[in-house]
Design brief:
Blueprint lengths: L1 H10 L22 E4 L1 H8 L4 H12 L3 E4 L16 H11 L4 E6 L6 H14 L4 E5 L15 H12 L7 E4 L4 E3 L9 E2 L6 E2 L14 E5 L9 E3 L7 E2 L32 H5 L10
Helix pairs in contact: 2-3, 5-6
Length: 286
């Protein structure tokens, strides 16, 4: 498929491709890098006492180092069930999994890039650089409005906003009263024309410890500049095993890398980029 080939060429230096592309169950195989939590499991976890802790135990048992939340919305069937905002769920689950990375899903169906950029970057600060965003073309859990927004433009506006306030521009000089180098905080001034987004910026939040959150795209979005691609036959995910021990019905299988899951003490401060083997973007490096 042409879209997948374009993505692979764009992110090949960041995303290791050292495993077979065939479907494989979670058990009896090397631990996956990334495991997807079904929306129904998230909803059930927050509805009962101790549910988040139990869900965190299941994630640790999977051996995964990274958790994807909200990707059911990209599926025409699974995306129509009851669900939570993935950034809210990531805050609770991220505290229960202090060394895991988290990817949260969003689509331009009803989301605005400024709001998404601010939410995800704020979450990345709270969870100490362990957060990323997955952009899909459609949110199938929302009714169609007839409006269409380009998911690539959406993703680029989000990333551009993340870069409007570099973290190392913060000076904190009490003697002079300067908090930050204001010359380095700049507007985005994005104008996508009559059918696109008009976003001035900047964000009111500086970039994070990992430079900026990881920007991933679902396999239906052709964006070679993304950090990585998820979903589909070429870049599948493992779906978290059901609590009883059986696999969830899945549209996904294995990811493309297998680092050891982050199960060490809280002093393990690897960022999501560290866990996925991705570099800090040069434009925001300290």
């Amino acid at each position: 498929m042409a879209g997948r080939s374009a993505h692979s060429a764009g992110v090949g230096t960041h995303w290791r491709n050292d495993m077979p592309s065939t479907t494989a169950p979670v058990t009896g195989t090397p631990a996956p890098t990334t495991v997807a939590v079904p929306d129904a499991d998230l909803a059930a976890a927050v509805a009962r006492p101790g549910g988040i802790a139990e869900l965190a135990d299941r994630v640790r048992a999977s051996g995964a180092a990274v958790v994807a939340l909200g990707t059911d919305r990209f599926d025409p069937v699974r995306g129509r069930g009851h669900r939570l905002d993935p950034t809210t769920a990531a805050l609770a689950l991220g505290r229960a999994l202090p060394t895991h990375g988290l990817l949260v899903a969003a689509a331009p169906t009803r989301e605005h890039p400024y709001n998404v950029a601010r939410r995800v970057l704020s979450l990345d600060h709270v969870l100490d650089g362990r957060v990323g965003l997955v952009v899909g073309a459609h949110d199938h859990g929302l009714p169609a409005t007839g409006a269409h927004h380009d998911p690539v433009e959406f993703a680029e506006v989000v990333r551009g906003l993340w870069r409007t306030w570099p973290l190392d521009s913060i000076i904190g000089d009490r003697a002079t009263g300067r908090f930050a180098d204001a010359d380095r905080i700049r507007p985005l001034d994005h104008d996508g024309g009559p059918d696109g987004y008009r976003v001035r910026g900047p964000l009111t939040t500086p970039s994070s410890r990992q430079g900026e959150p990881v920007l991933a795209v679902w396999h239906d979005v052709v964006h070679p500049a993304a950090d990585l691609v998820l979903g589909g036959a070429a870049h599948p995910l493992v779906v978290l095993l059901a609590a009883a021990g059986g696999p969830e019905p899945s549209r996904a299988s294995r990811p493309t890398a297998t680092p050891t899951a982050g199960t060490g003490p809280v002093t393990d401060r690897r960022t999501l980029r560290d866990l996925l083997g991705l570099p800090v973007p040069g434009t925001v490096s300290a």
